[in-house]
Specification:
This protein has one domain. A 6-stranded antiparallel beta sheet has the order 1-2-6-5-4-3, with helices on both faces. The protein is α+β, with helices and mostly antiparallel strands. The protein is built from 6 helices and 6 strands. This is DUF4252 domain-containing protein.
Length: about 180
């Protein structure tokens, strides 16, 4: 009996310790995916529609390092500017965590964009693009992969120009663009 109580107490303690209450983009995505002002899209690497046999070794490595993209967008309207500002501040606060290393930032004031990453320079696990504009809303794009590096991302961008992107996967985002 004492062993069961002790084991239960240890398991409960481990559960509490392992629960991280620190905000993260992943938690933010999960919490907001189904809310009315948000649009969520998960995009697999299949979207690229590439003929892999025509790719160079460097291009294949770049494509293979890319797993998927998660996109969460908030569509701003005249009626939800308070919510827009609140949600924008939440994302900005999450991205200030030292785990998100900022690569670049552009724009001014409350309109602009930033690109950050998680991981080391040679083993990037996640790229994050955060763009916002008061009139339209904001979008957070998480590019997830394995062993990504800046060269892979640049190469992947050049491969995107040659790809036949499957627009069906991006259909939910069309309502954000239409105003």
């Amino acid at each position: 009996m004492k062993v069961n109580v002790f084991t239960t107490a240890i398991l409960a303690l481990l559960t509490l310790v392992s629960c991280n209450s620190e905000p993260s983009l992943q938690k933010y995505f999960v919490e907001n995916t189904d809310k009315k002002d948000f649009i969520s899209v998960d995009v697999s690497s299949d979207i690229l529609n590439l003929e892999k046999t025509k790719l160079s070794a460097e291009q294949k490595e770049a494509v293979n390092s890319f797993d998927k993209m998660n996109i969460l967008a908030f569509k701003a309207t005249d009626k939800n500017q308070t919510e827009f500002e609140t949600e924008r501040k939440k994302v900005t606060a999450i991205l200030k965590n030292p785990k998100y290393q900022e690569l670049m930032k552009f724009g001014s004031g409350k309109d602009g964009a930033s690109i950050s990453y998680v991981g080391s320079d040679e083993n990037i696990k996640e790229f994050v693009v955060f763009a916002n504009k008061k009139e339209n809303g904001f979008a957070v794009v998480r590019v997830l992969g394995k062993d990504m590096n800046p060269n892979n991302i640049i190469t992947l961008m050049s491969v995107l120009k040659e790809s036949k992107i499957d627009m069906e996967q991006l259909k939910p985002l069309q309502q954000l663009i239409k105003q």
